[in-house]
TrEMBL record, chain A:
The chain crosses the membrane at residues 12-36, 56-79, 91-114, 134-156, 185-211, 217-238, 250-275. Belongs to the binding-protein-dependent transport system permease family. LivHM subfamily. Pfam families: BPD_transp_2. CDD domains: TM_PBP1_LivH_like. Keywords: Amino-acid transport, Cell membrane, Membrane, Transmembrane, Transmembrane helix, Transport. The keyword Mitochondrion does not apply. This is Branched-chain amino acid ABC transporter permease. It is found in: Cell membrane. The keyword Transmembrane applies. PANTHER family: ABC TRANSPORTER PERMEASE PROTEIN (PTHR11795:SF447), BRANCHED-CHAIN AMINO ACID TRANSPORT SYSTEM PERMEASE PROTEIN LIVH (PTHR11795). It is a multi-pass membrane protein.
UniProtKB/TrEMBL annotation, chain B:
It comes from the Bacteria. GO terms for cellular component: plasma membrane. The lineage of its organism: Bacteria, Pseudomonadati, Pseudomonadota, Alphaproteobacteria, Rhodobacterales. Pfam families: ABC_tran. Transmembrane segments: none annotated. GO terms for molecular function: ATP binding; ATP hydrolysis activity. It comes from Seohaeicola zhoushanensis. This is ABC transporter ATP-binding protein.
UniProtKB/TrEMBL annotation, chain C:
This is Branched-chain amino acid ABC transporter permease. Signal peptide: none annotated. The chain crosses the membrane at residues 12-41, 47-70, 82-104, 110-128, 169-188, 218-235, 255-280, 292-319. It is found in: Cell membrane. It comes from Seohaeicola zhoushanensis. CDD domains: TM_PBP1_LivM_like. GO terms for molecular function: branched-chain amino acid transmembrane transporter activity. It is a multi-pass membrane protein. It comes from the Bacteria. Keywords: Cell membrane, Membrane, Transmembrane, Transmembrane helix. Its main location: membrane. GO terms for cellular component: plasma membrane.
C-alpha cells in the first residue's frame, strides 16, 4: 500500500516535471511554429536567477515565481527582437540560430558564474510514508504543473489576449488581416514562453546541482514532449507528458533510472514513427 | 475493342464526414483523351490524386492495364509508365531545364540514351535557348511547359494532367494543346480542367463531376449544351 | 562529362599534395591530423544535408559509433585492418536501419531532427551508463563515463607490429580525406547523385518521375554515416581513447555549424568550415578571456542571420564577380542574360 502510494506520487511527479519542462517550448512552438533550442538554457538561466535572488536575500518562493520568470522573459524579449524575428517562417533556420544561442548562453553563464555546481536547498521538508521517504517538494512540483495548465487554459479561454492568441495559432495571416499586428503577438508570445521556461527552471533549481550546461538535460525532453504532443497546447502537453512520464517511471522502478531515461527516448522515437503528427494531431483535433 | 488502360471501381474517398469522391466508376481506353470537369469541390482533384497515388482511397479499387494499383505509392505508379503533372507546378527549382528533363528520362533509360532523349525533348518543346537556366528563374508558362516535357520524356502510355492550362497566356495554351495532341498519339490522357475554352478546343469526351460523383459522361458538345451541367456550374440546384 | 571528372581528380591530387607539403610548415601535424579528421566528418554531413537535403542533428552518433566500433574491434582482434572496415560498416548499417525507419515513415524536417537528436542522446546516455563490469564486448570493457583507452592503434595492413603514428599518420589521414572527397565527387556526378539532388529539390516530383525517394534517401544517409564512421575510427586512432563525449549534443552542434559556416551544397565548404573552426577553437582554447562555447554559438547565430549560404559560396561569388570578366566568362554571362530575358519576356 505504501509502495503503491510512493509509486503513484513518483509517476505524477514525472508527468508534472515533463509538463513544466515542455510548457515554455509548447507555447512558442504552438503559436509561432518556432522551435527554440535554447529552451534548456532559458531554464538554466531561470535556475541561476532564482539562486542569485535567494542569495541576495529574496524569499525563495518570490524568487522562483516572480524573479526568475521576469528575468528570463526579458532575456527572451531581447532574443526575439535581435534574432528570432528575422527568421519567422524559416523553421530550420530558427532551430539552428537558437541552437547557436544555446551555446552562447552556456558560454555567457560560464563566464559569469564559473563552471562550478551551485544550488539551494529545498524549501519543503521530506516526510515518511511507511518505510519510504518522500520528497515533500515533489508535491510542490505537481501543484505547480497543475496550476500552470489551468492558468494557460484560463488565459486562452477567457481573456481577449487568449482569443487573439488562439486565432493567431490557427491562422496568423487572418489575425493580421483583422488588425492585430503579428509582430506584437509574436513578441508577447515569446516573452510568455520564455517566462514559462524561466519558471520551470526555477522550480527545478532546488532539485538539481546547477551547472551552465544543465540546459542540455532538459532540451531533449522538452523537445520530444512538445513534438509528440502535437498541435494542441494543453491537451498535447498533458497527453504526451502522461505517456512519457509513466513509461519512464515504469522502467525506472523495474530496472534503473538510466534505463528509465532511455525508455522515455525510445518511446518518443516509436511514438513519432507511428504518429508523425503527434498525439493531438491524431486524436484530440481542434482542442486547446 | 481497344484495351482499357485505366479503370476505377466504386472509388470512394472520405475526409472525416465529407465524401470527396463518391462511388466513382471510371473507364479510360488506350489513346483516349478525357477531360474531367466540374465546379470547385466536385471531387475531380481528389479522384485525380487517388488515381495518381498521392492519396489512398477509403474504398474501391484502381486498375491500370489490368493491374490493381489501389494504394500504390506515386513512384510505383510512375514506374509503370504513367506520367503525372500535379496542379501546382512540381519542378526542381535549383536545377536547369535540361537537368529536370534529364532526370525524368534517366528513370527509364541508361545515361547516353537519357542524354539524347532529354536533348530531343528540349528541342521539341523549343526550350533550347533556356535549356541551361534554372527553373526558379523561369516564367510560369515556361515552367508548365518544362513539366509537361518531363512527363512526356518518359514515353508514358497514360498521362494524368491536373489543370495544365491554369494561369497561362493564350499563346502558351496553344503550344500546350499541340504538345498534348502529340502525346495523345501514343498515350491515353486524363485532363482535370476549369478553363472551358481550353476544354472546347481539346476534348472529345468529357466526364462531369458533381458533389463527388459522376454527373454525366458524354461528348463535349452535348455536355456543354446540357441544362443540368449548366445549372451545376451556375450554382442552381441540379 | 568523364573529361571533367578526370580534371577534378588531377586538381584534387595536386591541391592535396601541395597542402600536405605546406601545411605542416605552418601548423603541427598532430593538430593538423585532427583538423583533417574533422574535415572528413564535416564532409559526411555536407553530403547528406547539402546535396540530399537530410538535416541530421545526430551526425556525431555515427562518428562516435565508428570510434567505439574501432576501439572494441581493435582490442578483440589486434590487427587494425578489419576493425577499420567494421568502423565503416557498423555505422552504415545502423544508419540504414534508422534511415529506413524514418524515411519509410515519411518523416520530414523537424521530426527527422527530433529523432536523430534523440537517438544520439540515447547512445550518449547508454555509453555513460556502461561503467559496470557487466558491460563487456569480448575482451573490451565499455568503461562508462571514462570510455575505452589503450586499444591497439592503426598498423600497416598485415603487419600488426608496425604502427602508423606521428607524421605518417597525418599523411594517411590526409590521403584518405582526398580519396573520400574524390569518391563523393564521383558519387555526385553519377546518376545516383544527380537524382539525390533532384530529391532535395522536390521530393514529390522525384517520386512522380518514378524514383523511390525513401530507398534513395536511406542509401544516401547510410553513405554519409559510413564516411562519419571512417572519420570516427581515424579520430579514435588519433586520440587513443574513445569516450561518450563523442556522442554529446555539443559535438553534434559543431558539425552542423561547420557545414553552415563553410557553405551547404558545396563539397569543399564543410571541409573548410570544419578545419577552420576547429583550428579557431584550438587557438581560442589557449586564452581564457572569452569562453569558447560563447564564440561558437555567436558564430552560428551570426552566420544564420547574415551569411546563411556560408563562406565558400560567398567567396566563389566574389571571385566570379571580380575575375569573371575574361572573354570566356563574358560569353557565359551573355548566354545567361539572354536566358533571363526570355524568361521575363
Amino acid at each position: 500500500m505504501d509502495l503503491a502510494f510512493v509509486i503513484l506520487v513518483e509517476m505524477l511527479y514525472a508527468v508534472a516535471s515533463l509538463i513544466l519542462i515542455g510548457a515554455g517550448l509548447a507555447v512558442v512552438f504552438g503559436m509561432m511554429k518556432v522551435i527554440n533550442l535554447a529552451h534548456g538554457e532559458f531554464m538554466m538561466m531561470g535556475g541561476y536567477a532564482t539562486i542569485t535572488a535567494v542569495n541576495l536575500g529574496v524569499n525563495i518562493f518570490v524568487a522562483m515565481l516572480v524573479v526568475a520568470p521576469l528575468v528570463v522573459g526579458l532575456i527572451g524579449l531581447v532574443v526575439e527582437r535581435l534574432v528570432i524575428r528575422h527568421l519567422y517562417g524559416r523553421l530550420v533556420d530558427t532551430m539552428l540560430a537558437t541552437w547557436g544561442l544555446s551555446l552562447f548562453f552556456i558560454g555567457l553563464v560560464t563566464m559569469i558564474f564559473g563552471n562550478t555546481t551551485t544550488g539551494i536547498s529545498t524549501p519543503i521538508p521530506g516526510f515518511a510514508v511507511g518505510d519510504y521517504q518522500i520528497n515533500g517538494y515533489n508535491f510542490f512540483v505537481i501543484l505547480a504543473a497543475i496550476a500552470l495548465l489551468i492558468g494557460v487554459l484560463l488565459v486562452l479561454r477567457t481573456t481577449r489576449a487568449g482569443l487573439v492568441a488562439r486565432g493567431a495559432m490557427q491562422r496568423s495571416d487572418m489575425a493580421a488581416a483583422l488588425g492585430y499586428s503579428p509582430d506584437r503577438i509574436y513578441m508577447a508570445t515569446f516573452f510568455c514562453g520564455s517566462a514559462l521556461s524561466g519558471l520551470a527552471g526555477a522550480v527545478f533549481a532546488p532539485l538539481v546541482g546547477l551547472v551552465p550546461t544543465s540546459g542540455g538535460a532538459y532540451i531533449a525532453k522538452a523537445f520530444i514532449t512538445v513534438i509528440a504532443g502535437g498541435p494542441s497546447l494543453v491537451a498535447g502537453l498533458l497527453s504526451s507528458a502522461g505517456v512519457f512520464g509513466i513509461v519512464s517511471q515504469i522502467f525506472t522502478f523495474a530496472i534503473s533510472p538510466v534505463i528509465g531515461e532511455v525508455a522515455l527516448l525510445v518511446a518518443a522515437v516509436i511514438l513519432l514513427r507511428i504518429m508523425p503528427q503527434g498525439i493531438t494531431g491524431r486524436f484530440f483535433k481542434g482542442r486547446l | 475493342m481497344v484495351e482499357v488502360v485505366l479503370e476505377t471501381v466504386a472509388l470512394t474517398m472520405r475526409f472525416g464526414g465529407v465524401v470527396a469522391a463518391d462511388n466513382v466508376n471510371f473507364k479510360l481506353r488506350a489513346r483516349e483523351l478525357r477531360c474531367l470537369i466540374g465546379p470547385n469541390g466536385a471531387g475531380k482533384s481528389t479522384f485525380f490524386k487517388c488515381v495518381a497515388g498521392l492519396q489512398t482511397p477509403t474504398e474501391g479499387q484502381v486498375f491500370m492495364r489490368g493491374t490493381e494499383t489501389t494504394g500504390w505509392m506515386p513512384h510505383q505508379i510512375a514506374s509503370m509508365g504513367v506520367g503525372i503533372k500535379t496542379q501546382t507546378p512540381n519542378v526542381m527549382d535549383e536545377l536547369s531545364v535540361f537537368e529536370n528533363i534529364w532526370l525524368a528520362a534517366r528513370r527509364f533509360h541508361p545515361v547516353a540514351e537519357a542524354n539524347r532523349k532529354a536533348q530531343e525533348m528540349v528541342e521539341r518543346l523549343a526550350l533550347g535557348p533556356i535549356a541551361r537556366s534554372t527553373l526558379g528563374r523561369l516564367a510560369h508558362g515556361e515552367r508548365q511547359r518544362v513539366e509537361l516535357g518531363l512527363v512526356a520524356v518518359g514515353d508514358p502510355w497514360l498521362v494524368l494532367l491536373d489543370e495544365p492550362a491554369a494561369g497561362m497566356s493564350a499563346e502558351d495554351v496553344e503550344r500546350m494543346t499541340g504538345i498534348i495532341h502529340e502525346l495523345n498519339r501514343t498515350a491515353a490522357i486524363v485532363i482535370v480542367e476549369h478553363d472551358m475554352q481550353f476544354i472546347r478546343s481539346i476534348a472529345k469526351t468529357v466526364t462531369v463531376f458533381h458533389q463527388g460523383a459522376v454527373l454525366m459522361e458524354d461528348h463535349v458538345d452535348r455536355v456543354m449544351s446540357d441544362a443540368t451541367v449548366r445549372n451545376v456550374y451556375l450554382g442552381k440546384k441540379a | 562529362m568523364p573529361g571533367r571528372f578526370v580534371k577534378d581528380v588531377w586538381v584534387t591530387v595536386l591541391v592535396t599534395a601541395v597542402l600536405i607539403w605546406i601545411m605542416p610548415l605552418l601548423i603541427g601535424t598532430y593538430t593538423l591530423t585532427v583538423l583533417v579528421i574533422y574535415g572528413m566528418l564535416g564532409l559526411s554531413l555536407g553530403l547528406i544535408w547539402g546535396f540530399g537535403g537530410i538535416l541530421c542533428f545526430g551526425q556525431t552518433a555515427f562518428f562516435g559509433l565508428g570510434a567505439y566500433t574501432y576501439a572494441i574491434a581493435a582490442i578483440n582482434i589486434g590487427e587494425s585492418t578489419l576493425p577499420m572496415i567494421l568502423a565503416i560498416l557498423v555505422p552504415a548499417v545502423f544508419a540504414a536501419l534508422l534511415g529506413a525507419m524514418m524515411f519509410y515513415g515519411r518523416l520530414t524536417d523537424v521530426y527527422l531532427g527530433v529523432i536523430t537528436l534523440v537517438v544520439t542522446l540515447i547512445l550518449f546516455k547508454f555509453m555513460n551508463s556502461t561503467a559496470g563490469p557487466q558491460y563487456v564486448i569480448g575482451k573490451a570493457r565499455m568503461g562508462g563515463f571514462n570510455g575505452i583507452p589503450g586499444f591497439p592503434t592503426l598498423n600497416v595492413p598485415g603487419d600488426p607490429d608496425t604502427y602508423i603514428w606521428g607524421d605518417p599518420y597525418f599523411y594517411v589521414c590526409a590521403v584518405l580525406l582526398a580519396l573520400v572527397f574524390l569518391l563523393v565527387s564521383a558519387l555526385l556526378r553519377s546518376s545516383f547523385g544527380r537524382v539525390a539532388v533532384g530529391i532535395r529539390e522536390n521530393e514529390t516530383r522525384a517520386s512522380l518521375m518514378g524514383y523511390d525517394v525513401r530507398a534513395r534517401k536511406t542509401v544516401l544517409f547510410a553513405i554519409g554515416a559510413a564516411i562519419a564512421g571512417l572519420a570516427g575510427a581515424l579520430f579514435a586512432n588519433w586520440a587513443e581513447i574513445v569516450t561518450p563525449s563523442l556522442f554529446s549534443l555539443g559535438q553534434s552542434a559543431e558539425i552542423i555549424i561547420w557545414c553552415i559556416v563553410g557553405g551547404l551544397g558545396t563539397r569543399l565548404g564543410p571541409i573548410v568550415g570544419a578545419a577552420g573552426l576547429a583550428y579557431l577553437k584550438f587557438l581560442l582554447g589557449q586564452q581564457a578571456v572569452v569562453d569558447n562555447t560563447l564564440i561558437t554559438g555567436l558564430i552560428l547565430v551570426l552566420f544564420v542571420l547574415f551569411l546563411p549560404k556560408g563562406i565558400v559560396p560567398a567567396l566563389v561569388g566574389l571571385w566570379k564577380a571580380s575575375f569573371g570578366r575574361r572573354p570566356l566568362g563574358r560569353i557565359h554571362q551573355a548566354r545567361r542574360m539572354r536566358g533571363g530575358e526570355r524568361a521575363n519576356g
